[in-house]
Amino acid sequence: MNSIKNTVKMTYREAVREAIREAMRKDERVFLMGEDVGRYGGCFAVSKGLLEEFGPERIRDTPLSESAFVGAGIGAALGGMRPIVEIMTVNFSLLAADQILNNAATYLHMSGGLFNVPIVIRMSTGGGKQLAAQHSHSLEGWYAHIPGIKVLTPATLEDARGMLWTALEDPDPVLIFENNTLYNMEGELPVDAGALDIDHALIRRTGTHVTLITYGASLFKSLEAAEQLSKEEIQAEVIDLRTLRPLDHDTFLKSISKTHRAVIVDEGWRSGGISAEISARIMEGAFYDLDAPVERICGAEVPMPYPRHLEEKALPQVETIISTVRRMVKSNG
Amino acid sequence: MNAGQTPEPIHMARERDHNHHMLYQMLLIRRFEGKCAELYSSMKIRGFMHLYDGEEAVAVGVMQSLTADDAVVATYREHGHALARGISACSIMAEMYGKREGCSRGRGGSMHLFDDKTRFFGGNAIVGGGLPIAVGLALADKVQKRPRLTCCFFGEGAVAEGEFHESMNLAALWQLPVLFVCENNLYAMGTALALSESVTDITAKAAGYNIEAEAVDGMDLSAVEKAANKAASRVRSGKGPVMLECRTYRFRAHSMFDPELYRAKSEVEAWKGRCPIASFIRLLKEKGMLTDTELHEMEERIAIEIDDAVAFAEAGMWEPVEELTRFVYSDRRTE
Ligand SMILES: Cc1ncc(C[n+]2csc(CCOP(=O)(O)OP(=O)(O)O)c2C)c(N)n1
């Protein structure tokens, strides 16, 4: 054992910045483009300082033109670049939904395999900051509906730091969703932190009584619930999906074969959401392993209201996870 | 000017009252928002909040050209428009608090002020998102042969969005009664106009759609009012949409989270020297239409109006959590 410190303290925001910086240094085809990524430093300050380091060609401020600059990112990818396109929040990505769905996701197929689109599109997502009905949604599950793109949801510092490079090396379009409540989260990151796999879910906590399946900011609520439940002798296994498309169901199916119970925690809307897909995969792959019906704790089906008490009520909370698991385990021991 | 010997001519009295009314509105907006900034610091107001300091002459000047029947579509920087449109400071403040007495029952907050009585259709926080809505409101008026217009405010940043261009074209193509008001404050968050537009003259874009456009000094209330009246009467005459570009400046940060790395302090100071409120006060005093006492009394009335608004918001109720999912679909009345 040596006593040399081999971790550094940083925030999620800094971890994303480090990932961008590393990619820019490693590959000159990489550039960052989006609204206010340069002079302003990024609307969530992710790209702060990068303009000074890399200059305006590679840290490219765009006008308010989501459809055009996402489309231009697709074109630049076709032209041999490796663009990282930043959209301020998922709600604004809807102005570029045409480019994402009709072009990025389809080019390879409709060209019969001739043209792949190696673009990475990053955006913030999620509620919790009282930003109301046009700035607070979790549409990553919705994007996960689309074949042809990959959907990443880094929750931890390691993933914020490690998923970007792998995404850039992917030959196809990758969307990265950064939950806006995570940017200030602080933690220790190994000094040699680097690229990570983007194909697998991970067990963040092991347990035997129930499997909590989640991602993004809900991961930490689930871990907190698991911690509290452990004091009542209920051991929850917590799975961080990390990637919503392609969905690694093997990891959660295997876990359920051990725990026999599953609860899905997702900030997104319930109807037709990623939670519905996960539940269906469980029905298909683990039906006979289940001791209880699958439960879902999702965002309430409402455009996000502004006041804190209503927003809190609209989002999954630790208390709800605990009471759901408790009820499930007790009624079916 | 007259020392009281001869009675003031009636038109002078009217002009003075009108000017006092507009000054009151500008000052109310400035002080109201000063209070909002304070309340934001004390966490009574949350979320994103965008203040309008420096731009008051635009909302107040343009509103003078509207009638009660007209519609207004605004952006997320809309406290000033809401106040100038006549929505009460109480219901706006309650909205910022998230209370059910707010103009949007607290569900919208700072960026989503709505009011049916004054036909105030938001409060839109998607840049450019209000423009097509304005086109549709005007379409409904035209088709239903109602003699009214829709006034649509947007920032110069919105001009880069496709929705701006598509809306301009539709409104012109269908000759709809829309008054487009571009509030050109030179920056879209941290992006200066020259860095986001290949053609920085916004009126030139209107010309591309055969829409009559005029640029006006947005720091000069009288100039804005005059230009707005002219533009609105042209719209009312049925000759299709008109665009008014008001050249202005925001004195404060973009929102409460903006470190303002993108512009020089000296530039901000220079623009503050052109404060529309201070200039208007100076003008009125020069014309003998405003005394220090009157100004002082006005400030006192405004202070009371704002105190009342805060008290009203404080005393307001929260929407019950049981009603979380109300207003996702319309409440059906059973008659
Ligand atoms: C479609 C969309 N993209 C990005 C944003 C984030 N955003 C909010 S305000 C703003 C700047 C808009 O500038 P401008 O239209 O000039 O209006 P101003 O804020 O100066 O009043 C940006 C980029 C948004 N709200 N909507």
Automatic annotation (TrEMBL), chain A:
Necessary cofactors: thiamine diphosphate
Keywords carried by this UniProt record: Oxidoreductase, Pyruvate, Thiamine pyrophosphate
Descriptive protein name: Putative pyruvate dehydrogenase, E1 component, beta subunit
UniProt cross-references to InterPro entries, sorted A to Z: THDP-binding, Transketo_C/PFOR_II, Transketolase-like_Pyr-bd, Transketolase_C
Signal peptide, first to last residue: none
SUPFAM superfamilies the UniProt entry points to: Thiamin diphosphate-binding fold (THDP-binding) (SSF52518), TK C-terminal domain-like (SSF52922)
Domain of life (superkingdom): Bacteria
UniProt KW Signal keyword: no
PANTHER family: PYRUVATE DEHYDROGENASE E1 COMPONENT BETA SUBUNIT, PYRUVATE DEHYDROGENASE E1 COMPONENT SUBUNIT BETA
Species this protein is from: uncultured Desulfobacterium sp
GO molecular function, one term: oxidoreductase activity
Ranges of residues in domain Transketolase-like pyrimidine-binding: 10-185
The keyword Oxidoreductase is annotated on this UniProt entry: yes
From TrEMBL, chain B:
Family annotation (Pfam families): E1_dh (PF00676)
Source domain of life: Bacteria
EC assignment: 1.2.4.1
UniProt GO MF annotations: pyruvate dehydrogenase (acetyl-transferring) activity
Cited SUPFAM superfamilies: Thiamin diphosphate-binding fold (THDP-binding)
Single GO biological process annotation from the record: pyruvate decarboxylation to acetyl-CoA
Catalytic activity: N(6)-[(R)-lipoyl]-L-lysyl-[protein] + pyruvate + H(+) = N(6)-[(R)-S(8)-acetyldihydrolipoyl]-L-lysyl-[protein] + CO2
Requisite cofactors: thiamine diphosphate
Domain spans labelled Dehydrogenase E1 component: 24-315
CDD domains hit by this protein: TPP_E1_PDC_ADC_BCADC (cd02000)
Keywords annotated in UniProt: Oxidoreductase, Pyruvate, Thiamine pyrophosphate
Its job: The pyruvate dehydrogenase complex catalyzes the overall conversion of pyruvate to acetyl-CoA and CO(2).
NCBIfam families: PDH_E1_alph_y (TIGR03182)
Subunit structure: Heterodimer of an alpha and a beta chain.
Protein name stated in the entry: Pyruvate dehydrogenase E1 component subunit alpha
Organism: uncultured Desulfobacterium sp
Taxonomic lineage from the root: Bacteria, Pseudomonadati, Thermodesulfobacteriota, Desulfobacteria, Desulfobacterales
Gene: pdhA
